[in-house]
Design goal:
This protein has a two-stranded antiparallel ribbon with strand order 1-2. A two-stranded antiparallel sheet has the order 3-4. The chain contains ten helices and four strands. It has one domain. The chain is globular. By secondary structure, the protein is mostly helical.
C-alpha cells in the first residue's frame, strides 16, 4: 500500500468509528433519559437542586469553589513569601521575572489611573484580578463534589454564582469609597455615591459573562451531536477568554473610578481670593 492509500484507509476507519460512537450515543440519549435542557439551564443559574452539605447547611457549589480558590491563594501566598522571596536576587531568575512582571503590570495600572493614591489600589486590583482569573479557570480542573441527593457534580467557578459576583462588585465599590473618604473626606464619599449603579453593573457584568460561558458549555454537552471534541474547544476557549477579559475589565474600572474619587480638587491661592473679595466689596 502506498502512503496515500494508508492515509485514506485510516481516515475511513476514523470516520466509521466516529459514526458508530455517535449512533451509540443517540441510542443511549433517547427521550425520557436524564434531565431536560430547561432544567439544566435553570439549575446553572439558580442552583436550586444541586446543593452541597457544608457544616450542617445546604449551600451552593459556588461557595465551596470560593473556599477552594481562597485556600489555594493562601497556600501560594505563604510559599511565595517564606520560600521564594528570601531567594530573590538582583539578577532575577525565570520565576522571579514572571512574578515581577505580573506585579508590575497591576502596579503600573494603579499608578496610571490613580496617580494620587495607588499603593493599596495596586495590591487590591492585583488580588482581585488574580482571584477572577484563577476562580474562572478553576472549573476546568473538574473538581468533583457530592450533592445532597448523592450525585456527583463538577464544582463551578465561584463568580458563576450571583452571590459571589455581588460580593466582588460590592467589595470593589467599598474600596473606591474608602479611597475617596481618605483622600477628600465627605466630598470623596459624595463622588462615589453619585455612581450608585457601579456595584450593580460590576456584579452583573461578572455574573453574566461567566454564566454565558457556562450555559454555552452546558448546551454543547447536552446535545449528542456536539459531545465529541466540541466541549473541549468551547469550554477551554470560553473559560480563558472570560478569565482574561473580566479580570482586565474589573481591575480597570476599579482603578479608574478610584483615581477619580481620590483626585484632590485644587484650592485657589490666597492672592486670588483677596482680589476676588476686593472686587466684590468695590
Amino acid at each position: 500500500m502506498t502512503k496515500k492509500q494508508k492515509l485514506s484507509f485510516f481516515i475511513v476507519i476514523g470516520i466509521v468509528i466516529a459514526v458508530i460512537l455517535v449512533v451509540i450515543n443517540l441510542i443511549r440519549s433517547g427521550p425520557g433519559t436524564g434531565e431536560s435542557i430547561q432544567t439544566a439551564m435553570k439549575d446553572a443559574v439558580l442552583h436550586e437542586s444541586n446543593k452541597i452539605r457544608f457544616l450542617g447547611m445546604e449551600v451552593n457549589p459556588g461557595l465551596i469553589s470560593a473556599f477552594c480558590v481562597t485556600g489555594i491563594f493562601l497556600v501560594l501566598g505563604l510559599l511565595i513569601r517564606f520560600v521564594l522571596v528570601p531567594r530573590f536576587r538582583k539578577i532575577p531568575g525565570k520565576l522571579q521575572m514572571v512574578l515581577e512582571l505580573v506585579v508590575g503590570l497591576f502596579d503600573n495600572m494603579a499608578r496610571t489611573n490613580s496617580p494620587h493614591m495607588n499603593r493599596f489600589l495596586g495590591a487590591y486590583i492585583f488580588m482581585a484580578g488574580a482571584y477572577i482569573f484563577v476562580g474562572t479557570i478553576f472549573e476546568l480542573f473538574g473538581v468533583q463534589a457530592v450533592t445532597t441527593e448523592g450525585t456527583s457534580i463538577s464544582l463551578p467557578a465561584p463568580l458563576a454564582d450571583i452571590n459571589g459576583a455581588i460580593c466582588m462588585g460590592c467589595l470593589s465599590y467599598l474600596v473606591i469609597m474608602s479611597g475617596g473618604l481618605i483622600a477628600n473626606g465627605l466630598k470623596g464619599v459624595g463622588k462615589t455615591l453619585k455612581d450608585f449603579s457601579l456595584p450593580i453593573s460590576m456584579s452583573f457584568r461578572l455574573f453574566g459573562a461567566l454564566l454565558s460561558g457556562a450555559l454555552v458549555t452546558e448546551l454543547v454537552y447536552f446535545y449528542p451531536l456536539t459531545r465529541y471534541g466540541f466541549p473541549i474547544i468551547v469550554g477551554v476557549l470560553f473559560t480563558l477568554l472570560h478569565a482574561l477579559i473580566q479580570a482586565y475589565v474589573l481591575t480597570t474600572l476599579t482603578s479608574v473610578f478610584y483615581g477619580e474619587v481620590t483626585e484632590k480638587t485644587p484650592k485657589k491661592p490666597k492672592k486670588i481670593r483677596q482680589k476676588a473679595k476686593v472686587q466684590t466689596q468695590a
